[in-house]
Amino acid sequence: MRILFAGLKYDYGIPERGLSFEYYNFFDSLIGMGHETELFDFYSLYLKLGSEEMTRRLRERVDEWKPDLLFTFLYGNEFDRNGLKGIMQETRTVTFNWFADDHWRFENFSRHWADCFSFVSTTDAQAVAKYRNLGFDRVLLTQWAANPRYYKKGSGGPDEGITFVGQAHGDRPAIIRALRRRGIPVKVHGTGWKARRWHDYARRLRILSRRSYENLMNSTRIPQEKMIRHFQRSRINLNLSASSQMIHNQIKGRNFEIPACEGFQISGPAERIEEYFVPDREIVLYKSVDHLVEIIRYYLENEEKRAAVAAASYERVIKEHTYEHRFRELFRQMDLA
Predict the structure, then answer these.
(1) Which H/E stretch holds residue 284?
(2) Measured at the alpha carbon of residue 105, what is the angle toward residues 100 and 106, in degrees to the nearest 5?
(3) Any idea what DSSP says for residue 195?
(4) How far is CA 256 from CA 144, 237, 318, in A?
(5) Alpha helices, DSSP H only, in 101-209?
(6) Percentage of the chain surpassing pLDDT 90?
(7) Bridge partner list, 162
(8) What is the spatial order of strands in the sheet that 2-6 belongs to?
């Protein structure tokens, strides 16, 4: 199949931060499946040309190349709506968007863009009815996964302690502080872990320059390959599953990426997580900070059980939860298989 993938090439559109999540997981998986796939880095063009011209160039490429599928992963409001609708209505290309974070972005984002596509998908089971209530019934329920071409087993056994990789938002800093107060030495990596509230105030008052603030925010961030090494080598990988808005606990990509590296994972609860992993056999879920402390100590003292859960979760992900599995099912539902 010929697929034009319209997504960010760089992480949050910033070249200095390396390639994006969607590049590593979506674009690369499509290539790995054997599809003739081309990247349209819409965000870089949007910054240079603006919304209308960027969308016009996307339409131009669709007309020239005639892909079977235009697969988009929207970021914000960068596209021209009429231009996107024109591709859907005036060409033979099937258009599809994977909506992320509908748990908290449906009302202020996704609902305003769904009618620009032939099909959309969501990872939020509750959002399916919301789309249909808008009169949009071409919504497909899917879930995050992992790309085993990047996320894979490491060599040797785990030789690190307890690690969390992710942004310092929501209740995450409070949980990490609580663990450390209880004597649990967690190493954290990701955007924002050295920033404090007064840094943001200083930025707004222009006491702290924007560049200095961004450097501070990014000082604890690590590249993709180092993140994967932590997943492979940490005895315990934490997954703190509250959304950035702290409205819902939601399934994250991390839930699949960690076990794809045969890493052991302790995760916060999330709606429908039991449909993807068997608790205590393929994933360990905590109910509270006190419970988290208890099970961390338990698995640090029970290496064989920790290794058994890691091995079982790895087998489950490789068998059922890769992006190739997700995309094949989505394409089948769109009659593109």
Answers:
(1) strand 284-285
(2) 95
(3) -
(4) 7, 12, 9
(5) 102-105, 125-133, 172-181, 197-204
(6) 84
(7) 186, 236
(8) 36-40, 2-6, 69-72, 94-98, 119-122, 139-141
DSSP state of 26: I
Q: What is the pLDDT of residues 12-27, one digit of tens each?
A: 999 998 999 999 999 9
337 pLDDT higher than 80: no
Residue 246, pLDDT > 60, answer no
Cα 31 from Cα 36, distance rounded (Å): 7
All domains of the chain in start order, with CATH: 2-145+323-333 (3.40.50.2000), 160-191+221-320 (3.40.50.2000)
CA–CA separation, 124 and 203 (whole Å) = 35
Q: 8 phi and psi, to 5 degrees?
A: -70, 130
Q: Is the Cα torsion angle 250, 251, 257, 261 positive or negative in sign?
A: positive
Place of tokens 């910033």: 14
Instruction: Give the global pTM.
Output: 0.93
What is the arithmetic mean of pLDDT over 206-224? Answer: 86
Pairing of strands 139-141, 94-98: unpaired
